[in-house]
Amino acid sequence: MSQTVDRALSILPLLAEGPADLGQVADRLGVHKSTALRLLRTLHEHGLVYRQSDQRYRLGARLFALAQEAMENLDVREIAHPHLVRLNESCGHTVHLAVYEENEVLYIDKVESRYPVRMYSRIGKPVAITVAAVAKLLLADLPEHERRAVAEKLDYPSYTARSTPNASAFLRELDKVREQGWATDLGGHEESINCVAAPIRGADGRVVAAMSVSAPNVVVTADELLTLLPLVRRTADAISGEYSGRTPVKGTA
């Protein structure tokens, strides 16, 4: 039975490359045409493949509907939280998770620092969008015309001398973040707080959330915090892999 399931599932990546006839499917699986036909008929009955008028098979609409439904029901916070906790245990600093919704970047999870000096941030609270590292990552992933439209609508408060001054500077920063794949806020919102952040991506490669590590200067310097960037990026990649389904959840078959 497991071999049958394995063969049936092997048909789907083949058809993702484009329509294929019975002979092509049989050749790819290394089975007789009669075996390939039985598998295709079963997949067809479930709407996972579709037989065209030219007798070739392609992926069925039901498969796309299932994928869309699964994506809509994914909870990035639930998936990310254990990873955020492990990162916090490793470095000791405050860890945030944020998403972009309705023109705001919001914290949806936070793991507190183990140090007595802590950040004033709350789950559900919008971030300072023009300076926050997580905001830069989320906005940098938008198509260019959307990035420009958002940037031109924003106000640019002077939180500190390092705050982003205007839309032009913000767009240049977003271009830089988009190219390098990570972001920082080094005293842009609060002089004494530094932050490094990395993106969490879905199956299509788009950024669905961003996570960060933040710490005050009295605990670590900006340069010391930047040494954590590889760890932050590995954590974000691990969350991305689990969220997108590329990486099996540890402990599952």
Automatic annotation (TrEMBL):
Keywords: DNA-binding, Transcription, Transcription regulation. It holds the Pfam family IclR_C. The keyword DNA repair does not apply. The keyword Magnesium does not apply. Residues 62-245 form the IclR-ED domain. It comes from the Bacteria. SUPFAM superfamilies: GAF domain-like, Winged helix' DNA-binding domain. Residues 2-61 form the HTH iclR-type domain. InterPro entries: GAF-like_dom_sf, HTH_MetabolicPath_Reg, Tscrpt_reg_IclR_C, Tscrpt_reg_IclR_N, WH-like_DNA-bd_sf, WH_DNA-bd_sf. This is IclR family transcriptional regulator. It comes from Streptomyces dubilierae. The lineage of its organism: Bacteria, Bacillati, Actinomycetota, Actinomycetes, Kitasatosporales.
